[in-house]
Design a protein that fits this description.
globular; Jelly Rolls; alpha+beta
Length: about 200
């Protein structure tokens, strides 16, 4: 389903340029989800999210990653999800342009690696101290060790709307308490649609 949305673009504020595309499909092992994509025809801003057909409560998923076999484990991350690897001091919270995706653990680690690479390039460009560059190198080495199954870490997904999941028999899910959910960044808020209107 594709429709024009009667809202201004949240980035360029142009009237009448937002399009919403909703596509429902069965994601293997996760059930029916609706993929929502918002696109501004003016500035090119685009955001995607995944909404499960059944209602969810705030929830967290965790998995101890300790082998190369875990790299192919499927992950659904909604735009409201915080991803954390405590042992490495890595955390990504949803921002105003956060987007949902379906990937695997290797893909999640690659995203962290790309972010560290961006920090390194910026430090090199700004002629910042060697300590930042050294820390970036150490982080990339640690992420590589996790990918090869040499280093064990715990991947956590914390989602105040409960749309994120890790598909593995050893993954642990739990509900997030209300006070814990309030402490999480809910991600982008789109005033242009209500999920119940789409589903």
């Amino acid at each position: 389903m594709e429709s024009r949305v009667e809202q201004d673009c949240p980035i360029c504020f142009t009237e009448g340029t937002l399009r919403m595309i909703a596509h429902s499909s069965e994601i293997p092992y996760f059930g029916e989800h609706t993929q929502i994509t918002m696109i501004c025809e003016g500035c090119g801003w685009k955001v995607t999210d995944f909404i499960p057909a059944d209602g969810k409560k705030p929830g967290a998923w965790s998995l101890v990653i300790d082998s190369e076999e875990h790299m192919s484990t499927r992950v659904v991350r909604s735009s409201s999800c915080t991803i954390r690897i405590g042992e490495l001091g890595l955390e990504v919270s949803p921002g105003g342009s956060s987007t949902g995706y379906v990937s695997n653990i290797e893909g999640v680690l690659n995203r962290f690696e790309d972010a560290v690479g961006t920090i390194r390039r910026q430090a090199e460009r700004d002629n910042e101290g060697a300590d930042i560059l050294t820390r970036c190198e150490e982080m990339v080495t640690s992420i590589d060790s996790v990918k090869r199954g040499v280093m064990s870490v715990t991947l956590e997904l914390l989602d105040p709307v409960g749309h994120s999941q890790i598909l593995h028999d050893d993954a642990i899910s739990r509900e997030i308490e209300e006070d814990e959910a309030e402490g999480l960044d809910p991600g982008p808020v789109y005033p242009v649609f209500d999920a119940k209107d789409v589903l």
